[in-house]
């Protein structure tokens, strides 16, 4: 206590840091002591008042007993205290420090020499000055210990004390305790200038600070005031608190020798005379005037981070695990882990959930379809024994799921819409069916009559038979008695392999039928009567293939004869037919005319024309020999054509009918050939062959939807299939398969290709309606998908049933079945 | 947003009648390809004699191949630059503006498909560091210096003076005989760190990486010399017929490979057949919307290469091929190869042996609502991938 009494008034303020950080209990005493000291020094009243106000304010707020932190945050005395053997309580420490300072003050320059930094300072000039000049008015120097600055006069000092900066700093000091805690968490080596209470992040920064103007000023001031100047060695923050391990700590974590990086990205800004005036770091977007600062910046953490981010991702920048960052980092890791786990689980489960289900769904549908196909009489998925693709499907196609493309595309909708426009109406079909059926039955009657007449006189087929209608008619009528029940709904499902005509005719015998609506040969033979001249009749052409379009009025039948058909035979038939027709259909009126040029006759009624051609397989065999021999025989060319028509029909039934989308596309193409002059030179038979070959040659046996099938046909023609030099269309129904399209001239081929090329691109660019010659359908609204397609679906479903399994029969008597069979698409 | 709504509704609706699965699955289909279904189209008459045509193709190839002096010039330059760059990879020394990971030759020089008159070789440099403009600049300077020191013993004629330029792809070093493009890129995992303001463009960097994959693929799959001949012919045709401009060299590579190798026997087709097949394929719409086209073998996701073209370009490319195919079938191969006549045959009416070959119109039209539909569909195609990606991220 002896030290305390004579305190120079100017030093009053120097206590405040100590006092602020001391224990609350001690504060009271300290305060009293200070008051006393102030009074003794006869300070100006307002000065004391201000101070008191401060002190009380402090007392009120600072209620935290923190003896430990006091020491930590007490820069000026700690170094010394750390060396001393005894531990001081807060209060004693304060007293001690005050005393030390006083002694130091008295000691003057002598003591200050022991400090390391007089090198800069030329040894306490300020103190000397004070001593020599200013003892009478020492209060001229107003020093704020919190901010470590001096003020010119009391007025400015007061203003300073009320200013923002001081208040902030004061608050910061109050928070010193918590700061210390934070510092503890910071593992990086921060260096702290004890004199200025400035924390620097590294050796360089510290050195820069020591060199800096601010530090110099403070040193100067402290020297002037004669206050103790702590050693220049920086206090290391962030190491363990206990003193003995401190040194090791420093050794363990030496400041890494950081190489500056990114020199290239710092541009020098030069003044007009070429002198470098400042630097601009392009990576960090900051500028500095000082070369030292530039160096510092290039070693700095922020710059290095930017460099790592923008230039070299491999650069190692030590992490700065501040509490907040570490928390963020941890949070990130945790989330990443969670996410990973989530996806791992999801990935694991997905095959079960999504892929598998879809796979099985497709699989199920495929199988259903397969069963359906089998049920309808097709023997398997590839009923026609098509040779497999040579060398297997190329890998390009293996990825595609053959059954996946089932949803209707816009092209499909357009094709099916157009198809329904060109497909004949129900009434048309029925009236055609009626006239054809009547003609067939009448022909059978005629055949029976001819057979009757020839029986007694064998070998004289030429002789006109006596009408025996009363005998024949009941039989015929009896056979017709059960037409509704025997309507061959099921029969056409069996698509037979192409067989010899005779054999199939014999097959039909087992099942007597009343007309040829199954589009097979309607045989007239009953009990192997070898002498029958008219053996049977068969529908050929568009009628038999199911290619009739709306507005078609011409249909064709071919009557097979046992021998070469002669004009006499034709005449006889023409004579016999009208009464037979009358008998078969009393209510209808038909006119029968002979058409020798076509080797047949025509039956006209209801605005429809049935061309009945007579031919015989023998016409083919005897070849050139028959040339001029028999003048009575009908035109050979026409007879051969009729035979070819028979083969075409058989081929069509065997190949095209079972092919998905094929019949639809052929109908569409037939319409195209009728509409577009460029396409008209393409004969119907060539076109059918083309479509069938193109659609059936899809690698991998993929079924095409109607839209795709049409596009593929266009692609084929566009790629020059029909051009001169192309492979041509081999006709399977002729010897040595000649080109079915040989009739086309080079220019016609060129024009066809040209047209198809344009059509293909129109299809690709969603203008298929232009190719089809129709109005564009409104774009599909998916939301109303079911409503929109309800009408169309029924129709297209009916069609598909036709095209896939039926033999293109013209009468859709099974209307109810069609609706129920509508596949859910 | 709307789409999501639709999807939700669709799901509910479908839930009634049938199990919910993807309503619209876009499955591009492969167009008609005669070479793959020859069994369905047996020749009805023997194929016409094409010796003259084949000879013309081979002759044109010879004409198009670079001359010996061109080859020497480019080889010299490439070797030097490759040496310099290799040194930088192995021993960067004081050069620290960027770190080189790998140096690779790519492009037509590497593939051996160069066309005379275009003596440019490409080298891709992969940087370990990020490709800032400064780094490229510094690399350019370094290469320049090293080249100088490498060539200081040589007598440099005036034509062999090197000029160095830097562009957004990298460095170009050229003399009056040859040009080497050193294209800069960075490691794949750095790509997303690129910032357009500081670094070179990300798309370009990716394209350079792709170029490396392409040349690798080519080495492994397309070394057959027929392919190289065909590529050279196609490149020439591309420059002469405007409609083929949008076809990139990579598309031509794949197309030539496809035309020659993609057939049931897996044996290379003769050049005349393959040449015609290219036009047949393009005419059949190989590169049209809705076609499976050719899948890029160097991209992880299945990417149809022709989608890099706009819809209009696809149309024009197709119609040009269609017209030329017809010209070709009427015997106009000399005009197509550029041996006589000019490129007007693709756009104007021409007469061959009395057959009038007329040009085609574009099918692509661009009214607003059509465009929407088109885009919607493209979106659909892309959508699958997109949603997949978002799922993964």
UniProtKB/TrEMBL annotation, chain A:
<feature type="region of interest" description="Disordered">
    <location>
        <begin position="229"/>
        <end position="260"/>
    </location>
</feature>
<keyword id="KW-0862">Zinc</keyword>
<dbReference type="Pfam" id="PF12874">
    <property type="entry name" value="zf-met"/>
</dbReference>
<feature type="compositionally biased region" description="Low complexity">
    <location>
        <begin position="469"/>
        <end position="497"/>
    </location>
</feature>
<feature type="region of interest" description="Disordered">
    <location>
        <begin position="782"/>
        <end position="825"/>
    </location>
</feature>
<protein>
    <recommendedName>
        <fullName>Zinc finger RNA-binding protein</fullName>
    </recommendedName>
</protein>
<keyword id="KW-0863">Zinc-finger</keyword>
<dbReference type="GO" id="GO:0008270">
    <property type="term" value="F:zinc ion binding"/>
</dbReference>
<dbReference type="InterPro" id="IPR003604">
    <property type="entry name" value="Matrin/U1-like-C_Znf_C2H2"/>
</dbReference>
<feature type="compositionally biased region" description="Basic residues">
    <location>
        <begin position="783"/>
        <end position="795"/>
    </location>
</feature>
<dbReference type="GO" id="GO:0003727">
    <property type="term" value="F:single-stranded RNA binding"/>
</dbReference>
<dbReference type="GO" id="GO:0003725">
    <property type="term" value="F:double-stranded RNA binding"/>
</dbReference>
<feature type="compositionally biased region" description="Acidic residues">
    <location>
        <begin position="246"/>
        <end position="255"/>
    </location>
</feature>
<dbReference type="InterPro" id="IPR049401">
    <property type="entry name" value="DZF_dom_N"/>
</dbReference>
<feature type="compositionally biased region" description="Basic and acidic residues">
    <location>
        <begin position="806"/>
        <end position="815"/>
    </location>
</feature>
<dbReference type="InterPro" id="IPR036236">
    <property type="entry name" value="Znf_C2H2_sf"/>
</dbReference>
<feature type="region of interest" description="Disordered">
    <location>
        <begin position="448"/>
        <end position="518"/>
    </location>
</feature>
<feature type="region of interest" description="Disordered">
    <location>
        <begin position="1"/>
        <end position="24"/>
    </location>
</feature>
<dbReference type="GO" id="GO:0071011">
    <property type="term" value="C:precatalytic spliceosome"/>
</dbReference>
<dbReference type="InterPro" id="IPR022755">
    <property type="entry name" value="Znf_C2H2_jaz"/>
</dbReference>
<dbReference type="Pfam" id="PF07528">
    <property type="entry name" value="DZF_N"/>
</dbReference>
<dbReference type="InterPro" id="IPR049402">
    <property type="entry name" value="DZF_dom_C"/>
</dbReference>
TrEMBL record, chain B:
<dbReference type="GO" id="GO:0071013">
    <property type="term" value="C:catalytic step 2 spliceosome"/>
</dbReference>
<feature type="compositionally biased region" description="Basic and acidic residues">
    <location>
        <begin position="362"/>
        <end position="373"/>
    </location>
</feature>
<keyword id="KW-0010">Activator</keyword>
<keyword id="KW-0805">Transcription regulation</keyword>
<dbReference type="InterPro" id="IPR049401">
    <property type="entry name" value="DZF_dom_N"/>
</dbReference>
<feature type="compositionally biased region" description="Acidic residues">
    <location>
        <begin position="374"/>
        <end position="393"/>
    </location>
</feature>
<keyword id="KW-0804">Transcription</keyword>
<dbReference type="InterPro" id="IPR052134">
    <property type="entry name" value="ILF2"/>
</dbReference>
<dbReference type="InterPro" id="IPR043519">
    <property type="entry name" value="NT_sf"/>
</dbReference>
<keyword id="KW-0238">DNA-binding</keyword>
<feature type="domain" description="DZF">
    <location>
        <begin position="24"/>
        <end position="378"/>
    </location>
</feature>
<dbReference type="GO" id="GO:0003677">
    <property type="term" value="F:DNA binding"/>
</dbReference>
<dbReference type="GO" id="GO:0003725">
    <property type="term" value="F:double-stranded RNA binding"/>
</dbReference>
<keyword id="KW-0539">Nucleus</keyword>
<dbReference type="Pfam" id="PF20965">
    <property type="entry name" value="DZF_C"/>
</dbReference>
<protein>
    <recommendedName>
        <fullName>DZF domain-containing protein</fullName>
    </recommendedName>
</protein>
<dbReference type="InterPro" id="IPR006561">
    <property type="entry name" value="DZF_dom"/>
</dbReference>
<dbReference type="GO" id="GO:0045893">
    <property type="term" value="P:positive regulation of DNA-templated transcription"/>
</dbReference>
<feature type="region of interest" description="Disordered">
    <location>
        <begin position="362"/>
        <end position="393"/>
    </location>
</feature>
<dbReference type="InterPro" id="IPR049402">
    <property type="entry name" value="DZF_dom_C"/>
</dbReference>
<dbReference type="Pfam" id="PF07528">
    <property type="entry name" value="DZF_N"/>
</dbReference>
């Amino acid at each position: 206590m002896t030290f305390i009494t004579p305190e120079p008034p100017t030093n009053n303020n120097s206590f405040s840091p100590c006092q602020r950080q001391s224990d609350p209990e001690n504060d009271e005493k300290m305060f009293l002591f200070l008051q006393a000291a102030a009074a003794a020094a006869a300070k100006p009243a307002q000065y004391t008042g201000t101070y008191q106000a401060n002190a009380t304010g402090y007392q009120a707020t600072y209620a935290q007993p923190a003896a430990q932190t006091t020491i930590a945050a007490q820069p000026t005395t700690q170094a010394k205290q750390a060396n001393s053997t005894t531990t001081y309580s807060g209060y004693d420490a304060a007293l001690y420090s005050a005393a030390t300072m006083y002694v130091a003050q008295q000691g003057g320059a002598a003591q200050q020499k022991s400090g390391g930094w007089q090198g800069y300072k030329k040894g306490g000039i300020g103190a000397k000055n004070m001593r020599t000049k200013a003892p009478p008015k020492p209060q001229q120097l107003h020093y704020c210990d919190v901010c470590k600055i001096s003020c010119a006069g009391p007025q400015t000092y007061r203003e300073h004390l009320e200013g923002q900066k001081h208040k902030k700093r004061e608050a910061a000091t109050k928070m010193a305790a918590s700061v210390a805690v934070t510092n503890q968490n910071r593992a990086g080596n921060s260096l702290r200038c004890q004199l200025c209470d400035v924390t620097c992040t590294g050796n360089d920064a510290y050195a820069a600070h020591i060199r800096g103007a601010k530090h110099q000023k403070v040193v100067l001031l402290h020297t002037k005031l004669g206050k103790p100047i702590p050693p220049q060695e920086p206090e290391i923050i962030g190491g363990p608190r206990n003193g003995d391990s401190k040194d090791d700590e420093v050794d363990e974590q030496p400041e890494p020798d950081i190489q500056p990086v990114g020199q290239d990205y710092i541009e020098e800004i030069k003044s007009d005379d070429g002198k470098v005036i400042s630097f601009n770091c392009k990576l960090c977007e900051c500028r500095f005037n000082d070369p030292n600062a530039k160096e510092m910046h290039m070693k700095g953490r922020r710059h290095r981070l930017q460099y790592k981010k923008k230039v070299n991702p491999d650069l190692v920048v030590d992490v700065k695990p501040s509490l907040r960052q570490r928390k963020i980092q941890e949070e990130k890791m945790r989330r990443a882990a969670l996410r990973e786990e989530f996806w791992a689980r999801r990935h694991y489960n997905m095959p079960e959930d999504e892929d598998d289900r879809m796979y099985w769904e497709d699989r199920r549908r495929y199988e259903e379809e397969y069963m359906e196909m089998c049920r309808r009489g097709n023997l398997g998925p590839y009923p026609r024994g098509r040779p497999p693709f040579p060398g297997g499907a190329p890998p390009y196609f293996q990825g595609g799921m053959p059954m996946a493309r089932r949803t209707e595309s816009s092209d499909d909708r357009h094709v099916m819409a157009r198809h329904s426009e060109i497909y004949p109406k129900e009434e048309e079909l029925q009236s055609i069916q009626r006239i054809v059926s009547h003609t067939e039955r009448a022909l059978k009657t005629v055949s029976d009559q001819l057979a009757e007449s020839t029986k007694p006189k064998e070998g004289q087929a030429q002789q006109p038979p006596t009408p025996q209608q009363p005998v024949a008619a009941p039989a015929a009528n009896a056979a017709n008695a059960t037409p509704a029940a025997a309507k061959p709904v099921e029969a056409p499902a069996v698509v037979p392999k192409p067989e010899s005509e005779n054999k199939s005719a014999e097959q039909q015998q087992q099942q007597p039928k009343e007309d040829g609506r199954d589009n097979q040969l309607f045989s007239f033979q009953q009990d192997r009567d070898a002498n029958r001249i008219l053996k049977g009749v068969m529908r050929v052409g568009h009628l038999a293939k199911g290619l009739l379009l709306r507005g078609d009025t011409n249909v064709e039948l071919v009557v097979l004869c046992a021998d070469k058909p002669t004009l006499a035979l034709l005449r006889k038939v023409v004579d016999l037919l009208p009464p037979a027709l009358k008998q078969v259909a009393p209510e209808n009126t038909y006119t029968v005319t002979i058409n020798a040029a076509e080797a047949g006759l025509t039956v006209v009624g209801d605005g429809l024309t049935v061309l009945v051609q007579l031919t015989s397989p023998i016409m083919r065999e005897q070849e050139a020999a028959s040339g001029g021999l028999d003048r009575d025989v009908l035109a050979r060319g026409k007879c051969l054509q009729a035979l070819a028509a028979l083969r075409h029909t058989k081929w069509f039934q065997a190949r095209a009918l079972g092919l998905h989308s094929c019949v639809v596309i052929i109908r569409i193409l037939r319409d195209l050939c009728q509409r577009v002059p460029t396409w008209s030179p393409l004969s119907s038979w060539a076109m059918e062959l083309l479509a069938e070959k193109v659609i059936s040659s899809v690698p991998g046996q993929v079924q095409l939807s109607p839209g795709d099938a049409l596009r593929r046909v266009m692609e084929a023609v566009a790629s020059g299939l029909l051009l001169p030099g192309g492979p041509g269309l081999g006709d399977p129904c002729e010897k040595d398969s000649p080109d079915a399209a040989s009739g086309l001239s080079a220019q016609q081929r060129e024009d066809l290709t040209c047209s198809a090329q344009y059509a293909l691109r129109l299809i690709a660019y969603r203008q298929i309606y232009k190719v089809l010659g129709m109005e564009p359908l409104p774009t599909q609204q998916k939301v109303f998908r079911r409503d929109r397609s309800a009408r169309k679906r029924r129709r297209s479903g009916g069609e598909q049933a036709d095209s896939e399994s039926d033999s293109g029969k013209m009468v859709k008597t099974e209307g109810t079945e069609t609706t129920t069979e509508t596949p859910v698409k | 947003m709307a789409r999501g709504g639709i999807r939700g509704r669709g799901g509910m609706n479908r839930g009634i009648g049938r199990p919910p699965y993807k309503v619209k699955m876009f499955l591009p289909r492969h167009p008609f390809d005669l070479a793959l279904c020859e069994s369905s189209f047996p020749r009805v008459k023997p194929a016409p004699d094409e010796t003259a045509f084949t000879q013309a193709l081979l002759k044109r190839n010879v004409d198009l191949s670079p001359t010996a002096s061109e080859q020497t010039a480019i080889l010299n330059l490439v070797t030097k630059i490759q040496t310099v760059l290799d040194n930088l990879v192995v021993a960067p020394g004081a050069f620290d503006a960027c770190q080189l990971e790998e140096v690779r030759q790519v492009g037509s020089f590497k593939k051996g498909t160069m066309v005379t008159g275009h003596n440019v070789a490409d080298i891709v440099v992969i940087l370990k560091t990020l490709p800032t403009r400064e780094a490229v600049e510094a690399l350019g300077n370094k290469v320049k210096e090293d080249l100088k020191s490498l060539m200081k013993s040589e007598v440099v004629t005036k034509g062999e003076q090197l000029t160095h330029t830097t562009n957004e792809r990298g460095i170009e070093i050229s003399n009056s005989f040859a040009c080497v493009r050193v294209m800069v890129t960075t490691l794949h995992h750095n790509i997303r760190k690129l910032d357009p303001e500081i670094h070179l463009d990300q798309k370009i960097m990716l394209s350079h990486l792709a170029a490396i994959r392409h040349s690798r693929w080519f080495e492994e799959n397309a070394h057959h010399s027929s392919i190289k001949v065909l590529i050279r012919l196609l490149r020439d045709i591309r420059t002469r017929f405007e409609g083929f401009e949008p076809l990139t060299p990579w598309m031509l590579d794949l197309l030539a490979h496809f035309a020659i190798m993609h057939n049931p026997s897996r044996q290379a087709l003769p050049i005349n057949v393959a040449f015609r097949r290219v036009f047949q394929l393009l005419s059949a719409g190989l590169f049209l919307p809705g076609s499976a086209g050719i899948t890029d073998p160097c991209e992880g996701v299945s990417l149809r290469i022709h989608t890099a073209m706009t819809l209009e370009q696809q149309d024009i490319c197709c119609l040009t091929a269609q017209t030329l195919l017809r010209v070709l079938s009427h015997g106009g191969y000399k005009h197509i190869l550029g041996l006589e006549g000019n490129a007007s045959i693709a756009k104007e009416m021409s007469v061959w042996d009395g057959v009038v070959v007329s040009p085609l119109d574009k099918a692509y039209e661009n009214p607003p609502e059509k465009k929407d539909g088109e885009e919607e569909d493209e979106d659909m195609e892309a959508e699958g991938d997109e949603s997949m990606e978002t799922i993964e991220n």
